[in-house]
Automatic annotation (TrEMBL):
Protein name: Dipeptide transport system permease protein DppC
Matching Pfam families: BPD_transp_1 (PF00528), OppC_N (PF12911)
Lineage: Bacteria, Pseudomonadati, Pseudomonadota, Gammaproteobacteria, Vibrionales
Listed transmembrane segments: 29-50, 105-129, 141-160, 166-184
Residue ranges occupied by any ABC transmembrane type-1 domain in the UniProt entry: 99-287
UniProt topology in membrane: Multi-pass membrane protein
Localisation: Cell membrane
Any Gene Ontology CC annotation: plasma membrane
Alphabetized PANTHER family for the sequence: ABC TRANSPORTER PERMEASE PROTEIN, OLIGOPEPTIDE TRANSPORT SYSTEM PERMEASE PROTEIN APPC
Organism: Vibrio maritimus
């Protein structure tokens, strides 16, 4: 008599049969948004191959090409499809390279936020008592300040401690740390609320009876059941991290001039529009 051999499905098979993929394939908005995101991600990663110019190569930048209009406008140049900025860099190339840099900062900063928020939220929700009170009061104090204020304070502390030259050399790493420190309380509070509901369930009690230690129960049993709100927050926080990087670059606390990003593009666009607006006002006064 032969025994039936039970075939354990692989991770890919379990993923294809998961509820996540089932509902994702039936949500047209989610699929369209994911497609647009993947196009932007692929274009940013392939920027060295598809960009007309390299904005990091200062030897190819000519200040005489500064502030050229797009190629389809009068006085435009075909070699600069979207025109140039005030330093003579091709705007299309700067968008492609800057998107890659901004996406890197966004994902890395969200990863740091996720790590800090997960550890602190799990600890506060699982242990409770004084640990919960101390960690959550610390999060409340940080939440009482705006994200940009915390980022500006931390950025100023880094610059004063290590110097402007060190900050410029490790600007990407510094921005990841700054934005990550400024945004972790949202993860911590969300995860804590989920842990408070999960730790009273039977599977947690069974894990305790079996003698599992607290870290294993927290990360192997409770955390997988708290991933849904974490994923929702992460999709929003990536965009917030990119906007924070742009705002810090606009305030002069972000990336240096020789590392173009979406924040540097916003600074260039605002300065150009303000000069144009000022010129139009002066012409109105003159006439």
């Amino acid at each position: 008599m032969t025994q039936a051999v039970q075939v354990v499905p692989s991770r890919w098979e379990r993923f294809k049969q998961s509820d996540f993929l089932y509902y994702f394939k039936r949500d047209k908005v989610a699929m369209t948004s994911f497609t647009v995101f993947m196009v932007i991600l692929v274009m940013s990663l392939a920027s060295p191959l598809i960009a007309p110019h390299n904005p990091y190569d200062l030897s190819t930048i000519d200040i005489m090409d500064a502030e050229l209009p797009p190629s389809w406008m009068e006085d435009g140049d075909a070699t600069f499809p979207l025109g140039t900025d005030e330093q003579g860099r091709d705007i299309l190339s700067t968008i492609l390279y800057g998107s890659r840099l901004s996406l890197t900062i966004g994902f890395a900063a969200v990863g740091l936020q996720l790590f800090l928020g997960t550890v602190i939220g799990l600890s506060a929700g699982y242990f409770g008592g004084r640990v919960d009170s101390f960690l959550m009061r610390f999060a409340d104090v940080q939440l009482s300040f705006s994200t940009m204020m915390v980022a500006i304070i931390v950025s100023a502390i880094f610059k004063a401690s290590f110097g402007s030259e060190f900050f410029s050399q490790y600007a990407v790493l510094m921005l990841v740390v700054i934005i990550g420190i400024a945004e972790w309380p949202q993860y911590a509070r969300t995860i804590r609320a989920s842990v408070l509901a999960e730790k009273k369930k039977e599977y947690v009690e069974a894990a305790r009876v079996m003698g599992f230690k607290a870290p294993r129960i927290m990360f192997r049993h409770i955390l997988p059941n708290c991933l849904s709100p974490i994923l929702v927050i992460s999709t929003v926080q990536v965009a917030n991290a990119i906007m924070s990087e742009a705002a810090l670059s606009f305030l002069g606390l972000g990336l240096p001039v020789d590392q173009p990003s979406l924040g540097a593009l916003s600074v260039s666009a605002l300065s150009t529009s303000s000069r144009a607006l000022g010129g139009s006002r002066r012409s109105q006064v003159w006439f």
